[in-house]
Amino acid sequence: MEIINLGIQIVPKSKTQESYSLVDKAIEVIQDSGVKFEVTPFETVMEGPQEQLMAIAMEAQNAVFNAGAEEVLIYYRIHIRKDSNVTIDEKTDKYRNK
């Protein structure tokens, strides 16, 4: 099973809840999943098997609804290769302070 990157941006809409607190619920699901991830100002990027990451994305969506969102916009970006893995580190290690 190939390793991919899945970027997910969740934009909740609620008349009663603050959007950052709703997004935090989605990020908690990702944190608790055990997959490698990085939170950025615009999206969270996960690394792992595609099927697992899509299941986590659905859980994150449900967490936002369960926390009070009436509507959610979700944007996915997937980087996948036919015969090899895609990792976060290959893309970002050269930019990290060492």
UniProtKB/TrEMBL annotation:
InterPro entries, alphabetized: MTH1187/YkoF-like, Thiamine_BP, UPF0045_domain
Domain Thiamine-binding protein: 8-95
Coiled coil: none
Pfam families to which the protein is assigned, alphabetical: Thiamine_BP
GO CC annotations on file: cytosol
Protein family (similarity comment): Belongs to the UPF0045 family.
Protein name: Thiamine-binding protein domain-containing protein
Organism, as annotated: Anditalea andensis
Lineage: Bacteria, Pseudomonadati, Bacteroidota, Cytophagia, Cytophagales
